[in-house]
Amino acid sequence: MATDYYAVLGVRRDASQEEIKKAFRRLARELHPDVNPDPKTQERFKEINAAYEVLSDPQKKQVYDLGGDPLSQAGAGAGAGGFGAGGFGNFSDIMDAFFGTASQRGPRSRTRRGQDAMIRIEVELDEAAFGTTKDIQVDTAIVCSTCSGEGAAPGTSAQTCDMCRGRGEVSQVTRSFLGQVMTSRPCPQCQGFGTVVPNPCPECAGDGRVRSRRTLTVKIPAGVDNGTRIQLAGEGEVGPGGGPAGDLYVEIHELPHPTFQRRGDDLHCTVTIPMTAAALGTKVPLETLDGLEEVDIRPGTQSGQSIPLHGRGVTHLRGGGRGDLVVHVEVQTPTKLDVEQERLLRELAKLRGEERPQGQFQPGQQGLFSRLKDAFNGR
């Protein structure tokens, strides 16, 4: 070959693609016709443009290193055409050399990752506490079985776009204060894909996917709570063109329980007992998540006291063990007494010296006005 493209760019023959690109950018800033209009400089700019077109393309570079002519085989004339058809492929790198940005080159892929999906399921308290498995119905996009995600009707295939010739973009030259400026935009005929599907699949209309309802079995771990999300990798929407599926997220909604209220991993409930039971003590049966148990009400239990049952709550989602079950006691005072009951209570009060109780008074909370009044009085 008459031209040594490595020498034109000033790089070694074993230079990396990054080194080749940096050398081209540096020379493009110095030799661009809008910066240096000298005719000799313009010829030099054409040379580095042709050299970069070959050395930046792995296939052309391989042909060149083996002694072939990559430009003639590719049907391009960048070395002679400058800003002609052969120079279009390097325009983004030229713009990058001046403005530090580069557009995405090459056609877009028809195959893209699908979106994630989310479904909400309801579970009972015992299912959340101990874990379970549930079958769920999911409506998502799956790969079209007719075209296997290709989007083309059976027996046909996608064809190279004749407008952009497979590049996915078209370029045009406009005049500006810098001179001739080339801009690229997605090809309007193929939408930037580089290929067109003349005969779309009748089942998926060329999208490569169809919607379908499927049944999945989800394992609910012990200890989940409201808002907990379980990730099922690859069970979401299949992407366009039969691309990889996104993930499916299962969000937990715990249904209210008739007896227990959940606070974290602890369970709370309230038991109402008569005054006599609180004074004398008793045992109250309670249906817990583990079965029937008796709650021991000790003599003299006061209203508002709580009785913990350790390890009877919800399983910890992370780590072993369980929360507690806390029983809150409410003592009920009788509102209606018959004659005999009243007589007995009065006799009990007399025996306990409580016929005319003095009571025990404690300071209550003051209102804002009272606090301001005390402040002004110096109290």
Characterize the structure shown.
Keywords: Chaperone, Cytoplasm, DNA replication, Metal-binding, Repeat, Stress response, Zinc, Zinc-finger. One of its GO terms (biological process) is response to heat. Belongs to the DnaJ family. The chain is elongated. Helix content is 26%, strand content 26%. The strands form six sheets. It has a four-stranded mixed beta sheet with strand order 10-11-15-14. A three-stranded mixed beta sheet has the order 1-9-8. It folds into three domains: 95 residues, Helix Hairpins (Orthogonal Bundle), CATH 1.10.287.110; 98 residues, Sandwich (HSP40/DNAj peptide-binding domain); 91 residues, Sandwich (HSP40/DNAj peptide-binding domain). The chain is built from eleven helices and 15 strands. With 379 residues, it is of the alpha+beta class. A hairpin with a 2-residue loop joins strand 4 and strand 5.
For this entry, give a set of tags:
DnaJ; about 375 residues; 3 domains; about 25% helix; Helix Hairpins; HSP40/DNAj peptide-binding domain; zinc ion binding; 4-stranded mixed β-sheet; zinc-finger; 15 strands; repeat; elongated; alpha+beta; 3-stranded mixed β-sheet
Number of helical regions? 11
Strand order of the largest sheet: 10-11-15-14
Number of domains: 3
DSSP E strands, number: 15
User: How is the CATH topology of the largest domain named?
Assistant: HSP40/DNAj peptide-binding domain
Distance between the termini: 105 Å
Please give the structural blueprint.
Layout: H1 5-9, H2 17-31, H3 39-55, H4 58-65, H5 70-74, H6 78-81, H7 91-99, E1 117-123, H8 125-130, E2 132-143, E3 159-160, E4 169-176, E5 179-186, E6 195-196, E7 209-220, E8 229-232, E9 248-254, E10 261-263, E11 266-274, H9 275-280, E12 282-288, E13 291-297, E14 306-309, E15 325-332, H10 339-351, H11 368-376
Parallel strand pairs: 1-9, 11-15
Antiparallel strand pairs: 2-7, 3-6, 4-5, 8-9, 10-11, 12-13, 14-15
